[in-house]
Design brief:
By secondary structure, this protein is mostly helical. The protein is 80% helix and 0% strand. It is globular.
Length: 447
């Protein structure tokens, strides 16, 4: 045991040294070549110097975060939008459910685009869609314009999020891919936290339209950042085949383990989306204000950010996936009920942070298990199918929670419904087969 631990510590130490060497070499090469590229007026060469696996991953994480911010920014504003546009709660629900609904429609196509044209092409398509329609939302003269803007943004989202597995494969060795995926998803969680916690504050202090302007500017800015920095790794010698056919993608559904992963994604992401979409309404009967509910949602995401760094690293460290996925499902069974039935703001912040820490890392782990199961050639298509299942779960669970609530003054029946779904998810996870994580398989040399 001691020898094993020392070996793992050595691997981590070598990884840290490799990271430091990457950064040092990158800085040296950047300084040495920068002025030559500037005076030759070649912007591609200039920003190619800035592109290494960490900057590309961070550029992706930022744009993925923007997509989540634009999706959830109206979740803590349900009461405000209801009075501002004089619309019903069901109408407002479309601003949120349109994202998972369109994700279902476009997820397979986005996977095909990623596998055939590459992740950079796909991510930039998504960024352009989000930029154009985020700017359209500024003209908030009617609820219809707002909804059209959300539809356009939702079209771009799958072309960004489904690309994470291919980007990680392109830049990171096998034993770092869960960690890299975790870092990539951290950007998504930061965007969610900003949407839930900061949006009510910005609307109250600077106004609704001004908040939409800020979000549009952020979208355009980070799309440009990825355009300049998100360059594929041309030193990757893995020769990934980009010719995955539609029949091969459907063939993935013959794999029982992949079907099981999709069911778990359906239930898990469905529960997460249901909780974040209805958190304001769930807590309202207990005397929690819209702004406080936004902070609680933000604490859930912040806890998830920390958990998405810590838990995938531990999963890579021990070379195991299944025990950690079980951990990320069993703990939410214990934390969901107190989070959804308490009126003490300080307690809600604690429960929200803990729930996020243990629940959200499941997303990164599921992506890693999927890539390890299907292989690199079909990772884009497999990721698309997995997230399509998750977004289908979001549509079903969000709508079902509202139906289960019925005319009851609280959402307690919906909370019980969510707990049942988590219990089913937990039972199914026991049937996952553990596959060992190989160390330094197909190492990828960074620029």
């Amino acid at each position: 045991m001691a020898f094993h631990l020392l070996t793992q510590l050595k691997i981590i130490n070598n990884g840290l040294k490799g990271f430091i060497q990457d950064v040092a070499c990158h800085i040296f090469n950047y300084k040495y070549n920068f002025h030559k590229d500037v005076f030759s007026l070649n912007p591609i060469k200039i920003f190619n110097r800035v592109s290494n696996r960490w900057t590309v991953l961070l550029a992706f994480a930022a744009l993925a975060g923007i997509s989540q911010m634009l999706w959830l920014n109206f979740a803590p504003l349900i009461s405000f939008i209801k009075s501002h546009y004089n619309v019903s709660e069901s109408d407002i629900n479309w601003l949120l459910t349109v994202f998972p609904f369109i994700y279902i429609l476009l997820s397979i196509h986005s996977g095909k685009v990623i596998d055939r044209r590459g992740y950079r092409y796909s991510i930039l398509i998504g960024g352009i869609f989000m930029s154009v329609f985020a700017c359209l939302r500024i003209f908030d003269s009617s609820f219809s314009i707002l909804l059209i803007g959300q539809i356009g943004i939702a079209i771009g989202q799958p072309y960004i999020l489904n690309a994470i597995s291919r980007l990680v494969i392109d830049w990171f060795p096998k034993n770092q891919q869960a960690t890299a995926t975790g870092i990539g998803t951290v950007g998504m969680f930061i965007g969610m936290a900003f949407a839930l916690a900061a949006t009510p504050y910005l609307v109250e202090h600077i106004g609704f339209q001004e908040t939409l302007v800020i979000m549009a500017l952020l979208t355009v800015f980070f799309t440009l950042i990825f355009f300049l920095i998100g360059i594929p790794n041309d030193t990757n010698g893995q020769n990934i085949d980009l010719s995955a056919s539609f029949s091969k993608q459907l063939g993935l559904l013959k794999n029982k383990q992949f079907i099981l992963l999709n069911i778990i994604s359906f239930l898990g992401l469905g529960v997460f989306n249901g909780l974040t979409s209805w958190i304001e309404q769930i807590l309202k009967p207990y005397g929690v204000s819209s702004e406080q509910a936004g902070y609680v949602g933000g604490s859930l995401i912040i806890g998830g950010i920390i958990g998405s760094i810590v838990i995938p690293v531990l999963s890579d460290f021990f070379g195991k996936r299944k025990p950690f996925i079980l951990f990320t499902i069993i703990c939410p069974l214990l934390l969901t009920y107190p989070l959804c039935t308490s009126g003490h703001f300080s307690h809600l912040l604690i429960f929200g942070s803990l729930l996020g820490f243990v629940f959200l890392p499941a997303f990164a782990l599921l992506l890693s298990v999927t890539e390890e199961l299907v292989g690199q050639k079909q990772s884009g298509a497999a990721t698309g199918l997995l997230l399509m299942a998750g977004n289908l779960g979001a549509v079903v669970v969000i709508a079902s929670m509202q139906i289960v609530k019925g005319n009851h003054p609280t959402w307690i029946h919906s909370v019980y419904f969510v707990l049942i779904l988590l219990l089913i998810c937990c039972v199914l996870t026991f049937y996952l087969k553990e596959k060992p994580v190989l160390i330094d398989e197909h190492p990828i040399h960074d620029k």
